[in-house]
Hints:
With 400 residues, this protein is α+β, with helices and mostly antiparallel strands.
Amino acid sequence: MADYIAFDNERALNYVAQLNEFFAPNAQLTCNEFGDGNLNLVFRIADESGNSIILKQALPYARCVGESWPLTLDRARIEAAVLEKHGAVCEPYTAKVLHKNTELALTILEDLGHMAILRGELNQATTFPNLGSQLANYLATTSFHYSDFYLTPAEKKALVIEFTNPELCAITEDLFFDDPYGTSLRNNYPATLESEVKKLQQNTELHIKVAKLKQLFLSSPQSLLHGDVHSGSIFVDAQSTKVIDPEFAFFGPIGFDLGSFIGNFLLNYCAQNARISEIPKRRQMQTYLLTTIQQVINEFAATWLSLAKAHTRDLSLQAPGYAEYFVNQIIKDALGFAGTELVRRTIGLAHVSDIDGIEDDAARLQVQQQTLVLGEQLVLHAETAHDKESAFNLIISLVQ
Length: 400
Ligand SMILES: Nc1ncnc2c1ncn2[C@@H]1O[C@H](COP(=O)(O)OP(=O)(O)O)[C@@H](O)[C@H]1O
Ligand SMILES: CSC[C@H]1O[C@H](OP(=O)(O)O)[C@H](O)[C@@H]1O
């Protein structure tokens, strides 16, 4: 990328000003870089009356590690294009792209600063009654419209090429399926967790189940996934939900997105054991988390089936009962992927503040022990879940 340069506040501001598109010509603009994610720069550019936009720019390396971890700038192209593709079929719940520049690896987005990132809100035990339904709608609508049920084979194959994302997929392949089950230097957990980690790493049955999940991830281009649906990729407020940050997008197994979401809700469920000391309050929060998981599974299935009934274009896939079979497989896959999310967020490179934000070492360790076992058990038993009811029952039996 000959014309690429990483922005600072001044460059980001000047870039936006010269576009002459978002602010009045004489506006007094300010710019502040405030990204807190693992990979990119995020600037807010605002005028004196509070109008603002977000400029997100990829760095040629992973921000959280530094220049020693080079990373393709192409992720910015993929992120912006996926937001547009997902927005085209699910506009209300997808962050809006206002401008993109592939050479500079940047995207300008609507500023969602009036909303809040879900992870921080869950950590404060704030609940969102519309979230389950809206996220289920996002997951079902986007995954249906970019699947073989809806696209022609030629359209699908062209999109698979457009959204081939080898470098970012390799990160997921390493962090989800390899590192935690071996002795990667990237793994990160306290010495006090060593005996539990050793046990997990020596479980040969678990290795086979993880291998099956990795194979699914590698070789199942079912639909255009978001690729990283964790609670840091979702903005919420009392009314609405907006999904951001699909730079890990690719054509993969639909259960991966659903499973990432379930895994993050279960991480928060376990963390609440240390976060909320008052038992009735804790139960209330944990009930909300479980009810939302159940709602997402149920409404995902219902929306997918109704879309399949009304809009399946492929003749063979219209066979009575096939969509039901397909959705049950997605849910089964999702439970396995949820398990890998729990394990990798506990002992792998990238942690979550739900757990790391617990100040007391002993309380944090107890949560880590729980998330590790819960993740392991989900991976081991996911295949026993043959429909949405048995999937939810499995989750309940493992958290109690
Ligand atoms: N459209 C947006 N509106 C407001 N804030 C945003 C927006 N997109 C990102 N952010 C802020 O920037 C942070 C990092 O963004 P994210 O897309 O997750 O970056 P990364 O790709 O580095 O993980 C988010 O946690 C959020 O605080
Ligand atoms: C070195 S990337 C680690 C981790 O970070 C990503 O999340 P985000 O960019 O949203 O913070 C993704 O989950 C990766 O697995």
